[in-house]
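User: I'm writing a short report section on ligand binding and want a predicted complex to refer to. Could you take this sequence and zinc ion and write out the structure as tokens? A short remark afterwards would be nice.
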Amino acid sequence: MRLRALRAAPPAILPSLLLCDFGRLADELARLEAAGAKALHLDVMDGHFVPNMTYGLTIVEACRKYSALPIDVHLMIANPEKYVRRYRDAGADLLTIHIEAVPQPAALLKEIRELEMGAGLALNPPTPLGAIEPFLKLCDLVLVMSVMPGFGGQAFDPAVLSKLNTLREWSRREKQELLLEVDGGVNDATVGQCAAAGAGLFVVGSGIFRREDYAAAISELTALAVASSGGR
Ligand code: DX5
Ligand code: ZN
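Assistant: Sure. The structure tokens for the complex follow:
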């Protein structure tokens, strides 16, 4: 149900909660929903696959309890196969794994779909599209990282724009609906380029949480994405 809502949403701004005030999580969730956020992007880091450690199942459960928005879980962990069912139980609507953590993800993507979540596959900037191409038919979403994962507030890497372009062409050619998500350094200066290249979901951390007015930030970013998405 919530996944269908997310599919209908592009272009959609997804706040990455990494930089939010976790001491006031329920208030932050209410503010984001009132500000027009279309879904919540939750960054799970294990301090092993990436050089940082954030949060896991308990925060996903808390977001599920206090928000009706779709939950998009970005797993930056070395062994996601051990946790997919628990993330479903915690309330994830979309679960994204990294090709660098699971080089042969076919069985895991199928399991994620069987658990009635949207199956996402992410790749880091240095990873070529060829690494994920054999598995695109098993994906509902591809997450193109525009920074090396691990931290918010990093600079956007424009080299990933051609990947978005190629994925959009693939989706059209194969007539397969594929949500194209971009994550890392997306803000007023870069969201337009991403939309023009084919992205539909835009993860934004510092571009929202460093602003006082979440609604203004989200509506400005949405307007820029709409203006550049060529009337998707
Ligand atoms: C980084 C995370 C991103 C990050 C985005 O590894 O996956 O979601 O929080 O934050 P900004 O928009 O500040 O780059
Ligand atoms: Zn992320």
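A remark for your report: The pocket of zinc ion (ligand 2) is lined by residues 16, 41, 43, 74, 183, 203 (CB under 6 Å). The mean pLDDT is 96.
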